[in-house]
Amino acid sequence: MRVIVGTPADLERPVSWAHSTEMVDPRPHLRDDELVCTVGGSLVDAQSCSRFVEAVRASGSAGICLGLGEVHTQAPPALIRACRRMSVALVEMSHGVPFLAVNDVIVDARLRAQTSHSIRDGALMTRLLESLRSGDTISGMLDTVAEVLGGSFIYQAPGESVDTTRSRDPGELVGEPIEVHLGEDEWLRWYHPETPSDQEILAQIGRVMQIARREREVRQGEQRHRVGQLFSLIGDGLAHHAALVPEIERAGLAGSRLTVSAWPASTARPIAAYLHKALIADTAEVVFVLTSNAEVVHTTARELSLVCGYSSPVAVPEIAQGIAEARATLLLARKRGSVAGPESLTSLGALLEQQPRARLLPFVDQLIRPLVSPEVRGGSDLLVTLRTFLNYGGSLQTTANVEFLHVNTVRHRLGRVSQIVGRNPLDPSDRVDFSIAIWAYDKSSGR
To answer: Across the beta sheet with 286-291, what order do the strands follow?
Structure first.
């Protein structure tokens, strides 16, 4: 490992863990004092380098470790400049040295400083670290701990169900537990018939559980981003729907018609914590979720207090259609503050909600503003009558009744509208244009 950018103070800074990532902006997954490791697959220009370094600095991470050989043969000059400009330490690692070797050194240092010299405890920690590197589950590692130390263990973390060894109900566990708090709403308990007193080993085990959970969250987050890239490509017609089939099968959704839902950005983690049988795709602008039916969507939105939009049921070859529908219904859902389904797309108002405001301004300028101009006498009355006429399906008599006018007065006012703007409200096609114009006018004036 060679230092490229760094002061003596940087080199003395403690490193809590080595976090590997290829994201340009990994800050949602970073924590204080982590060494951020990357082979630089996303660091292809000055902008991406600057954005990456800014994310590392903003997260309070210890610095950047660039692995050479896979993408870059030497540190990109743009990366070096960005690190110097923002005072972020940068080291490079030779080709062939795995990033996990850094974690091995960190854990080894922690163990030397914090653990007892017990052969049993040392052997247990070695086994746990091997399990950590192999991606074992928290439940599997706790089984290993119980096998060596005896008793039963419970690990609790935010948004995660309790993992217990031997699948026992907590009420049936014997002995007075010892407990270590690992963070907010995160703890590890050890139930043992003889009430063991060695809390230090429990704290060390708890830190391994924390690391395992963090590594799992990172893997899951990166997987959601990869699926999100597939969704974006398929939605844009740049990839075939068959590319999603393996992911759909892994999610247990094969063989059924699917509902595509779209959710606000940055909601992937709470959705993933709540939904266990779903395919979640995380993109920069929106989170897509693939489920077996719309009822799951409504329940999830209600429980998490989120708005979302969802599609009609689609088969796998129709995924692109489902993505488009979900995007459109999310747009409506955000504006209405509630869940929106495909039925909400089949109205003129819903169609107009999806249009950029600038596209509708000509309707207002050409068909409404001339009526309310100060030069037009009684223009406000003309607009009121026109609005009522459109609201009641183009019925002259109903408009007259609602406004307490003679039907000839209604005819006269609509005739004046036609003279002023050059479009006839009595013509069905022109009525559609007037409806669009009034809708856009109301939106622009905050009605």
So the answer is: 279-282, 286-291, 259-264, 309-310
Residues 2-102, CATH architecture: 3-Layer(aba) Sandwich (3.40)
CA gap 348, 358 in Å, rounded: 17
Task: Say if CB 248 and CB 259 are below 8 A apart.
Answer: no
For 325-374, the pLDDT digits (tens) are: 999 999 889 988 899 998 888 777 777 777 778 888 899 899 999 988 88
Give 325's Cβ-side CA count (13 Å radius).
23
Question: Which residues, listed in sequence order, are joined to residue 5 by a DSSP beta bridge?
Answer: 90
What's the half-sphere exposure (Cβ side, CA atoms, 13 Å) at 197?
0
pLDDT, one tens digit per residue, over 200-246 is: 788 888 888 888 888 888 888 999 999 999 999 999 999 999 999 99
Phi and psi angles of residue 164, each rounded to the nearest 5 degrees, phi first: -125, 145
Q: How far apart are CA 26 and CA 68, in angstroms?
A: 20
**Main-chain phi, psi angles of 418, to 5 degrees:** -60, -40
Cβ proximity of 297 and 261 under 8 Å: yes
User: At a CB cut-off of 8 Å and minimum separation 6, what does 406 contact?
Assistant: 400
Coil, strand or helix at 373: coil
Q: Is the pTM of this model over 0.70?
A: no
**CATH tag for 355-444 (out of 1.10.8.60, 3.90.550.10, 1.10.10.2840, 1.10.10.10):** 1.10.10.2840
Can you tell me which residue has the tokens 């391994």? 208
The answer to whether 100 touches 37, Cβ cutoff 8 Å, is: no
* Burial (0-12, 13-18, 19+ Cβ within 10 Å), 433: middle
Give the residues across from 189 on adjacent strands.
154, 179
Residue 447, pLDDT > 70, answer no
Q: Where are the domains of the chain?
A: 2-102, 115-214, 240-347, 355-444
Q: Are 43 and 51 in contact (CB under 8 A)?
A: no
DSSP 166: G
Quick check: 292 and 256 in contact, CB under 8 A?
yes
Report whether 156 contacts 213 (CB < 8 A): no
DSSP state string for 286-303: EEEEEES-HHHHHHHHHH
Question: Can you list the alpha helix ranges (DSSP code H) found in 185-262?
Answer: 199-235, 245-250
pLDDT tens across 401-427, in order? Answer: 999 999 999 999 999 999 999 999 999
Interacting residues of 404 by C-beta distance below 8 A, sequence separation 6+: none
C-alpha distances out from residue 358 to 260, 330, 335, 346, 361, Å: 29, 20, 17, 22, 5
